[in-house]
Design goal:
The chain is an alpha+beta fold. The chain has helices spanning 8-11, 61-64, 96-105; strands at 32-41, 44-49, 54-58, 74-79, 87-93.
Length: 110
């Protein structure tokens, strides 16, 4: 009886694709949707917001390793209390299907 590497464990579950149903997070008070224009590095992004301003946004530490953000992604930001026209924190990243759903419902105007 030999024990192989991987084997049945790698094959298990293939061919079973289930559709996960999730609620789309809508913007709350003080949050603004935006489109990522440029990745600056060191957890910073340049985001074009729905209110027409371009802000330098920071990815908080709890999101940094868990969520990967690319140019063209739709994100939800929360402007800082001071320098609110210039800087903000990223709160949420929408998937493509979530962003399309929000746009069809009229909740996302970019």
């Amino acid at each position: 009886m030999s024990i192989g590497i991987g084997g049945e464990y790698l094959r298990r579950g293939q061919g079973q694709q289930t559709q996960e149903v999730r609620r789309v997070r809508s913007p709350r008070k003080g949050e603004i949707p935006g489109l990522v224009e440029q990745i600056m590095g060191h957890g910073k992004l340049r985001v074009r917001c729905a209110d027409g301003k371009i802000r330098l946004c920071r990815i908080p530490g709890k999101m940094k390793k868990r969520i990967w953000i690319r140019e063209g992604d739709v994100v939800l930001i929360k402007p800082w209390a001071f320098q609110s026209d210039e800087k903000a924190d990223v709160v949420w990243r929408y998937t493509r299907t979530e962003a399309n759903w929000l746009e069809r419902r009229g909740k996302l105007k970019l």
